[in-house]
Amino acid sequence: MLLKDICTMEAVCCGRRTRALEAARLMRQHHVGDLIVVDDPEEERTPIGIITDRDLVLEVLGNGLDPATTEVASLLHRTLVIADESEDTAQVIDRMREHGVRRMPVVNNQGGVVGIVTLDDLLRVLVADASALLEAMAKGRRQEQGAHR
User: Fold this and answer.
1) Burial of 123 per CB tally in 10 Å (0-12, 13-18, 19+)
2) DSSP bridge pairs for 42
3) Inter-CA distances, 2 with 32, 61, 68, 122, Å
4) What pLDDT is stored for residue 1 in this prediction?
């Protein structure tokens, strides 16, 4: 299955100079636990990092930083791992495992953000696929039992 078919297309983005307080407000307003930090939120939206609600709590509040003055760019410590919208979900799962990440910005051919894929998104697909396989097995058994009566 292609990533563009399962990712969340309404990824919420902010610029590198966004303050932590505003980032928290954006998360609350959009009911999300992460923001994709982009180079220019008004233009191409090239991702440079991801900030999570956990980052805000641990890095800003936990370190006694002022959320009104702390820019999100100062919280970006990990190398960003991205996914292309035309990738297969199996490739993305492998990359998530390899890098130990739970969410990845999804970009188009020009490198601009088109969405975000999370561990939850991929688990939903895997569970649905596993359920379909179980149903196929059960149906096969029922057909076999019906043929032998």
Assistant:
1) exposed
2) none
3) 23, 38, 40, 11
4) 77
Domain range spanning residue 67? Answer: 3-147
What's the Cα-to-Cα distance from 64 to each of 26, 74, 95, 106, 125, rounded to whole Å? 21, 14, 34, 33, 40
- Look up the CATH number of the domain holding residue 86: 3.10.580.10
DSSP-derived 3-state class of residue 51: strand
From the list 74, 39, 38, 44, the residue with the least C-alpha distance to 56 is 74
pLDDT of residue 28: 97
CA–CA separation, 149 and 141 (whole Å): 13
Count CB-CB contacts under 10 A for residue 146.
8
Q: Report pLDDT digits (tens) over 8-21.
A: 888 999 999 999 99
What whole-number distance in Å separates Cα of residue 39 and Cα of residue 72? 12
Dihedral sign, CA of 97, 53, 62, 78?
positive
Average pLDDT in the chain: 89
Is the pTM above the cut of 0.70? yes
Domains contained in the chain, number: 1
For the segment 24-50, the average pLDDT, to the nearest whole number, is 92
